[in-house]
Design a protein that fits this description.
5 helices, elongated, mainly alpha
Length: about 170
C-alpha cells in the first residue's frame, strides 16, 4: 500500500518559459506545520482566556487583561502570517508579529517578576508564560528560526519587465 500523496495538476504542471507565475509551492510540512498548529492553539487559548477575563472582571486588572487580549491578536496574526509566509508580504508580517511577541513576552515576563503590583492577575505572558508551560517564551524563538531558514523564493521577473525586441518592429 503506497503512502505517497496523489499528485495534482498544479504539482507537476510545467510553467511556460518567461512566465511570471511561480510554480506552486508545496504545502507546509514538518516543523512548519507543527509551528502553525502550536500558534493556532495559542491563539485559541489566549483569545478564550482574554474573552473570559474581560467579560468577568476587566475592572479588577485592566492592564493584565488588555495584555492577554493583545497576545491573542498577536498569536492570530502570527498564525495567519506563518500560513502565508511563502509570499514576501506575509513573510514580513510574520517577522513583525513574532518579534513583537518575543519582545512582549520578555518585557511582560520581566515586569511581572520585578513589579508584581502591576500584574495582580496573570496574563498569557506573565512570568514568561509559566501558566502555559513557558511555551510563550520558546515559541517565538522557534518561529524566528523557522522564518530564517525558510525564506520565500523570489519569482521570475514579470513579462512586462522583459527587454523589448530589438528588431525595430513595434508591437
Amino acid at each position: 500500500m503506497s503512502t505517497a500523496r496523489p499528485s495534482t495538476p498544479s504539482d507537476s504542471a510545467p510553467q511556460p518559459e518567461g512566465s511570471s507565475v511561480a510554480p506552486a509551492r508545496p504545502r507546509m510540512r514538518g516543523v512548519g506545520r507543527v509551528l502553525v498548529i502550536v500558534y493556532a492553539v495559542m491563539a485559541l487559548g489566549a483569545t478564550g482566556r482574554s474573552f473570559v477575563q474581560i467579560a468577568r472582571a476587566f475592572d479588577q486588572a485592566p492592564l493584565a487583561y488588555s495584555l492577554s487580549a493583545a497576545s491573542a491578536v498577536v498569536y492570530i496574526v502570527a498564525t495567519l502570517a506563518l500560513i502565508g509566509s511563502g509570499r514576501p508580504g506575509w513573510y514580513r508580517v510574520a517577522w513583525v508579529a513574532i518579534v513583537f511577541e518575543l519582545v512582549g513576552v520578555l518585557v511582560v515576563g520581566t515586569l511581572s517578576l520585578t513589579h508584581p503590583a502591576l500584574f495582580q492577575h496573570q496574563t498569557v505572558w506573565s512570568q514568561y508564560g509559566l501558566g502555559y508551560v513557558l511555551i510563550p517564551l520558546f515559541l517565538p524563538m522557534v518561529g524566528l528560526w523557522w522564518l530564517i531558514t525558510h525564506r520565500p523564493s523570489r519569482t521570475a521577473p514579470a513579462v512586462a519587465d522583459a527587454p523589448a525586441p530589438s528588431d525595430g518592429s513595434a508591437a
